[in-house]
Design brief:
The complex is a heterotrimer.
Chain A lengths: L1 H39 E3 L5 E4 L2 H7 L3 H33 L5 H13 L2 H12 L4 H10 L11 H26 L3 H8 L4 H29 L3 H7 L7 H10 L6 H31 L18 H28 L18 H8 L1 H33 L5 H9 L6 H14 L8 H25 L3 H9 L4 H30 L15 H10 L3 H29 L7
Antiparallel strand pairs in A: 1-2
Helix pairs in contact in A: 1-12, 1-16, 1-17, 2-12, 3-7, 3-9, 3-13, 4-7, 4-13, 4-22, 5-7, 5-10, 5-13, 5-21, 7-9, 7-10, 8-9, 9-12, 11-12, 12-17, 13-22, 14-22, 15-16, 15-18, 15-20, 17-18, 18-20, 19-20, 20-22, 21-22
Chain B lengths: L1 E11 L5 E12 L4 E5 L6 H9 L6 E6 L2 E5 L4 E2 L7 E4 L11 H10 L8 H14 L15 H13 L5 E5 L7 H18 L2 E6 L2 H7 L2 E6 L2 E6 L1 H6 L4 H6 L4 E7 L8 E6 L4 E7 L7 E6 L5 E4 L12 E12 L4 E7 L2 E7 L10 E6 L4 E5 L4
Parallel strand pairs in B: 3-9, 3-10, 7-8, 8-9, 14-21
Antiparallel strand pairs in B: 1-2, 1-4, 4-5, 5-6, 10-11, 12-13, 12-15, 13-14, 15-21, 16-20, 17-18, 17-20, 18-19
Helix pairs in contact in B: 2-3, 2-4, 3-4
Chain C lengths: L1 H36 L1 E6 L3 H15 L4 E6 L2 H13 L7 E4 L3 H6 L3 E2 L21 E13 L24 E4 L6 H12 L1 H11 L5 E3 L3 H9 L5 E6 H9 L4 E3 L5 E11 L5 H12 L1 H9 L3 E2 L13 H4 L3 E4 L1 H19 L1
Classes of the chains: A mainly alpha, B alpha+beta, C alpha/beta.
Chain lengths: ~575, ~375, ~350
């Protein structure tokens, strides 16, 4: 009786693994194949595969374009990582380890910025740092000069904006690290006679180094494959990076140069894969140093004395720069018919036209709808798939390891590369979903599988296998165990994973920009179009309304993740 | 010499109610003393230690080490922790994982501002400290390749390498397994005697406290309730709490039949009716309600042959019946029913009795203590 | 030449007269079919806020039950999108417009021949002799200036004026398509001739003109916002639209002005062929052309004047150089190459 049951269960598990294996393989393998094919074969305008050729790569190497873009990509990524670390890292240390005031503002900033689409954020920064934006305006007013303090459409501008974009994430991840690390390491140094500065220099920084390095590398990878800032900030200033080169090959050439884009994509893919391998090694050694104290003694914050007010000013500055100023400048833009420098006389132009247009146009409602449906559907599909894969992998069921590897693989795809690949696949195969919301959904599912795995897998690790074994001994089969035991216990991890993917999917631009059709525009794509075709003030109005909705959802994510304690992957 | 006067550090919880801390701690240690702060978790012992270390800022009080004032609340002065010349071993050991054993131990010498050490000097001192903790030759080992016991020794070496005036140990044995803990107890005591550093030790383990200390302060709910030698704490607990927390004891409530001054004998009628001769801790008024504490290992049992027992002056003899008997290796435990009273007795394993045996129970005056009930 | 023009015009009038009844009849059948299709998809390069929305609203009002869906992108993206969709076997658009959208699509065999009845009212240079497109509106590409930063009197008026060192780094243009640096180069080469033109461009390249990867509208917006005093190769009617809202902006008739036609065409495999044709009819009708005019765009139909009359060469008294889509299609790569070499 019991052996028969065991046999049936092993059988059903194998079936589940096989079906999942096919689904995931169909999702993640074709993009790689098509990219390599596209880069190594002539593809005719009608889509037929022609002769094998190295021509696309040869063209890449011709001229200085590839070298310039690659160098720009590296400089951009390194700069952004450093800026993000400076802003987010210092803030995390102040909030977690000192007695500075106004700490709650740092969290508020982070929550709201989690829900803001990058495109909107970037445009806000373009308004802020633009030639007539408040920053340069103030500079001219203070110095009497008539040039600019910062030309935003430059590498400096790109690095600054991208760095600001990532600083909340750095803050979030680093403050978690600081919160769970052992304060006695620092206290021991102080008791050994070290000054505060010596302690920070020789202990705090050195101990945090692996975690910080991992974080820097994470931001580096993200910036390296980032699209929003290079497209909106870099392109107008003609600072090209690899991702925008791919974009231009597909969007700015008639007919689209898929060969060139594929070759660029393969280059980018390889670089990211190498970087990720590095990242994994570093973050593993970061965990090794992570000794947790036995005692529940909360770390006594460093007493900064009068310096705590300086630290408080830094917190307020971050609050102003990351949250208040961008939103204020959006608000200013949203009530103007066209953007004007912040001047009293511009107040006479105030109008609610932009808001009226946004609220009255069915187009925007459709955008909201598309975006929310895409985000919710991709989050649901990903979480269902990765929940089962996570279970199979953690419990070492047959096929579990392979499924885990496959589901994690899409991490190597930068958004724009995945967009390129998915586009080519569905142009080539006779499944009529090009230009529909379905093709975007497929791209999202591929893209976010690894993020789902992160939650599903680590959530599973926390469930002691005896809980399942007890259910098995009570006579439950595998599916029943999954449904009655695993799922309810995993609910918090699944919920925060779902929300995280939902948030990412609702604001991503690099994926849908190549895939969106007339009926499948998303908020982020529409924002990009509006910005490039000069509807910046209407964009501001729509963006503010959208941010309002997303902030509510982001707060939900924040509180759930605090409860379930799952880590954040980044993006 | 360490002197602590009127040390107070209170924590408030979310509703502003007092939630832990220490009040009015007061003690003075002669050089070379091994002093233990003993109490249950949350009693304030670690707070006291951290206040001495400078890791916490006391609300008020004075901390003096030798001829230096480390903290004076009234004068508003506080020596920063890194200038206090105190070595400390943390509960988690806090061995820096990014350094080798040598680097960990050398650190206090390298960062020293008051005295500058040359490289050769540092090497020699580290070598000496490592040898003191029996870790000579471990210098190049990375800190991540150490067992729990080895980490503990490195932490000790690091704490003593500067030859500080004071050594603070915060539950250093709690993360070790039982066998290692026994060994380290002896080791620590040897080390302390060898170096002669005044030591303040925090633990919730009464066995550790009793076996290692020269003096013990028992802390209950933020107050030092008794400070004494281990024997004094064990045999002459001043309160019911101390009696119950340190070692195992039989406790009974009763009424004093006459007034008695501290240390004098007093007859107590306990609730179940028996009259017991006790030694008074503190003065006791006539008819005052008191608690009687009897250590189980101080009770003597003998088979009741029905003959009239000899009763030396001050000794109490009661009749009872063995209810349960169990062998515990070093001793035998008997639960004896005396009329309505149940007494736990730890007897020499040689004394063999069976459940149902009628016994005479002898309580010596020296080991039977009456505590005025006010000393809760 | 003159004779042919007259003949064409005459025949146009004759043809139009002859076709009115049948066109009307066809209209009725087409309207019914279009209503059955229920919607029309318009890939447009026009600015949504200014022209697409009012046009769609008027169309939907006139033909209730036919919803207009639109996707806005620049000419390049629009062409690529349609090419991709055709490759995937799923053309989503019915009708498209743009200054350089049509030639690559025609080359790929995706464009349907369709000549609406109202085409008769357009001069020959505004429609394709083979019937693939008709001009919907005209663009005149001129410099635009921020009037708070540059007084009209001080503004550069000739091509030579642009070489003045005081404008170094103060001029901005778009980097792609025709309403852009490459378009400007094309106009110089077409009007000055290769040799003189290249010599001029050589000098102009020293002026460090800022290139933006954004539409000409966005380029002008940066001038409105005061980021740059002068934009080159922007649409002159945009300045009027913005000035009406209070923006400190104006245009300069720097002659000869480049004139582009934005063409309207329907697609061969359009999912809503009747609705597409109906929308094309509407855009090119007097009614549709008036919507262009009302929005301060420049209608192609000669009988519909611009709202601000001097925007068009006839009333504005300036010389325009009309560049047809085909000319653009053949020469743009060359202009782009020069642009990339000298101005990037």
């Amino acid at each position: 009786m019991s052996s028969a049951r065991g046999h049936v269960d092993a059988h059903s598990t194998r079936w589940i693994a096989a079906i999942l294996g096919i689904i995931i393989a169909l999702l993640v393998l074709p993009p790689v194949w098509y990219l390599f094919q596209g880069s190594l074969f002539e593809i005719t305008p009608t889509g037929a595969v022609g002769e094998f050729t190295f021509e696309h790569y040869r063209r890449l190497l011709e001229g200085e374009r590839l070298a310039t873009s690659a160098v720009n990509s590296f400089v951009f990524a390194i700069g952004s990582a450093v800026v993000a670390l400076l802003f987010g890292g210092v803030l995390a240390w102040i909030v977690e380890r000192t007695n500075a005031p106004f700490k709650v503002l740092a969290y508020l900033t982070t929550i709201i910025s989690l829900g803001t689409p990058y495109v909107l954020y970037v445009t806000a920064w373009l308004f802020l740092l633009g030639k007539v934006g408040p920053v340069n305006d103030l500079y001219r007013w203070l110095t009497g000069a008539n040039d600019v303090l910062i030309n935003v459409h430059s590498m400096t501008g790109m690095v600054l904006v991208e760095g600001m974009l990532w600083s909340p994430l750095v803050f979030l991840l680093l403050s978690a690290t600081l919160r769970t690390s052992n304060p006695e390491f620092e206290e021991a140094a102080r008791m050994s006679g070290a000054s505060v500065w010596d302690t920070i220099r020789r202990i705090t920084i050195r101990l945090a180094l692996p975690a910080v390095m991992a974080l820097v590398l994470l931001v580096f990878i993200r910036a390296f494959e980032g699209f929003e800032v290079p497209a909106l900030v870099g392109l107008p200033g003609r600072v090209n990076v690899l991702t925008t080169d791919i974009f231009l090959a597909l969007k700015d050439t008639v007919p689209p140069d898929a060969g060139r884009a594929s070759a660029f994509s393969v280059v980018l893919l390889c670089v990211v894969a190498v970087l990720l391998a590095f990242y994994n090694r570093i973050s593993k050694s970061a965990e090794r140093f992570h000794t947790v104290t036995g005692k529940g003694f909360r770390a006594r914050p460093f007493d900064l004395g009068a310096g705590r007010w300086i630290a408080g000013v830094i917190i307020i500055a971050n609050f102003l720069f990351v949250l208040v100023l961008p939103n204020l400048v959006l608000l200013w833009a949203s009530v103007l018919p066209f953007f004007q420098a912040v001047r009293w006389k511009a107040v006479g132009l105030f109008t609610l036209e932009n808001y009226k247009a946004v609220i009255n146009s069915p187009f925007y409602l459709e955008l909201v709808w598309n975006t929310l449906i895409l985000a919710a559907a991709s989050a649901t599909i990903v979480m269902v798939l990765t929940l089962v894969v996570g279970w199979l992998a953690v419990r070492r069921k047959p096929g579990g390891w392979l499924l885990d590897q496959m589901a994690t693989m899409p991490l190597i795809f930068p958004g724009i590369v995945l967009g390129t690949a998915v586009m080519q696949i569905y142009l080539a195969v006779p499944i009529p979903i090009y230009g529909t919301i379905w093709i975007i959904l497929i791209a999202y599912v591929i893209r976010y599988l690894p993020y789902g795995m992160r939650y599903g897998y680590s959530g599973m690790l926390q469930i002691h296998r005896e809980l399942e074994e007890a259910a098995g001994m009570s006579g439950a089969g595998n599916l029943v165990i999954l449904r009655r035991i695993v799922l309810p216990l995993l609910a918090p991890a699944v919920a925060s994973g779902w929300l995280f993917i939902f948030l990412l999917a609702s604001r991503v631009l690099s994926l849908p920009i190549l895939l969106a059709g007339p009926d499948s525009q998303t908020i982020a794509v529409a924002m990009y179009d509006m910005w490039t075709n000069g509807q910046g003030t209407e964009l501001a109005a729509m963006g503010l309304l959208w941010t309002l909705i997303m902030t509510v959802i982001a707060s939900g994510f924040y509180f759930l993740s605090r409860r379930s304690g799952a880590g954040v992957y980044g993006n | 010499m360490l002197a602590v006067e009127g040390l107070t550090k209170l924590y408030a919880n979310a509703t502003d109610a007092i939630a832990g801390g220490i009040r009015d701690a007061e003690f003075r240690l002669e050089p070379g003393t091994f002093f233990t702060l003993l109490g249950p978790s949350g009693c304030g012992k670690t707070t006291t230690l951290r206040c001495i270390a400078g890791l916490e800022k006391p609300d008020s009080g004075i901390v003096r080490l030798g001829d230096r004032i480390l903290f004076d609340g009234a004068a508003g002065m506080s020596v920063p922790m890194n200038r206090r010349d105190i070595g400390m071993v943390f509960q988690s050991y806090a061995i820096w994982p990014h350094m080798t054993v040598f680097e960990n131990v050398a650190f206090p010498l390298q960062v020293s501002k008051d005295v500058r050490y040359g490289a050769a000097d540092i090497a020699a001192r580290v070598q000496k400290a490592l040898e003191t903790v029996n870790l000579g030759g471990y210098g190049n080992r990375p800190a991540t390749r150490l067992s729990g016991g080895e980490q503990q020794r490195v932490a000790l070496a690091r704490a003593i390498v500067r030859e500080p005036q004071l050594l603070l140990l915060d539950e250093p044995l709690s993360n070790l397994d039982a066998h290692l803990r026994e060994e380290m107890r002896v080791e620590l005591k040897r080390l302390q005697r060898q170096t002669g550093i005044t030591t303040v030790y925090v633990t919730h383990d009464q066995a550790e406290a009793l076996s290692m200390s020269d003096r013990i302060a028992v802390i209950e709910k933020g107050r030092i309730v008794q400070m004494d030698t281990p024997e004094g704490i064990y045999y002459r607990p001043k309160t019911r709490f101390v009696a119950g927390f340190v070692g195992v004891t039989n406790m009974a409530r009763g009424t004093a039949e006459a007034a008695a001054s501290a240390g004098a004998a007093v007859a107590v009628r306990i609730e179940t009716g028996e009259q017991i001769f006790c030694q008074a801790v503190g003065s006791i008024g006539a008819s005052a309600s008191v608690a009687v504490s009897i250590r189980p290992e101080s009770v003597r049992l003998e088979k009741d042959d029905g003959a009239a027992p000899d009763t030396p002056a001050g000794e109490t003899v009661l009749r009872g019946r063995v209810d349960q008997a169990s062998f515990q290796g070093q001793s035998r435990r008997y639960d004896v029913q005396i009329a309505g009273w149940r007494l736990m007795v730890l007897a020499d394993p040689q004394v063999r009795l069976s459940p149902g045996d009628e016994v005479r129970v002898r309580l010596s005056l020296r080991d039977t203590i009456a505590l005025a009930d006010g000393n809760e | 030449m003159l004779g042919r023009r007259v003949f064409l015009n005459l025949s146009g009038i004759l043809l139009a007269g002859a076709m009115i009844p049948s066109a009307l009849a066809a209209d009725q059948g087409m309207i019914a079919a279009a209503k059955k299709e229920g919607e029309v998809v318009w890939y447009t390069t026009l600015i949504v806020k200014q022209i697409v929305r009012p046009m769609a609203a008027a169309f939907e009002k006139k033909y209730p039950g036919i919803k207009v869906r639109y996707v806005r992108a620049n000419a390049t993206s629009t062409a690529n999108k349609i090419l991709n969709e055709a490759r995937a076997g799923k053309v989503a658009a019915d009708i498209f417009d743009g200054t350089s959208t049509e030639p690559p699509l025609e080359k790929a065999g995706l464009v349907a021949k369709y000549v609406p009845a109202s085409a008769a009212k357009y001069p020959p240079e505004y429609k394709d002799p083979q019937g693939y497109w008709v001009a919907g509106n005209l663009y005149f590409l001129t410099p635009g200036i921020n009037t708070s930063l540059v007084k009209k009197a001080d503004a550069p008026k000739t091509y030579e004026d642009l070489l003045d060192p005081k404008w170094k780094g103060k001029m901005v243009w778009n980097a792609s398509s025709t309403s852009s640096g490459p378009g400007f180069i094309g106009n110089v080469l077409l009007t000055m001739g290769e040799q003189k033109g290249m010599a001029y461009l050589e000098k102009l390249s020293k002026q460090k003109i800022v290139s933006m990867e954004a539409s000409a509208r966005k380029v002008l917006d940066s001038v409105v916002a005061g980021e740059y005093p002068i934009a080159l190769q922007i649409f002159n009617h945009h300045t009027v639209i913005s000035a009406k809202k209070g923006a400190p902006v104006d245009w300069v008739a720097m002659q000869p002005v480049m004139a582009l036609v934005s063409t309207v065409s329907v697609l061969k495999d359009a999912p809503h062929p009747n609705a597409g044709r109906l929308l094309m009819d509407f855009v090119l009708s007097e009614e549709g052309q008036k919507i262009f005019a009302n929005a301060n765009y420049l209608p192609a139909m000669p009988s519909v004047p611009a709202k601000v009359k001097n925007l068009k060469p006839e009333a504005g008294n300036y010389k325009a150089n009309v560049v047809t889509p085909d000319k653009v299609a053949t020469d743009l790569p060359k202009w782009k190459a020069i642009f990339d070499k000298m101005f990037r």
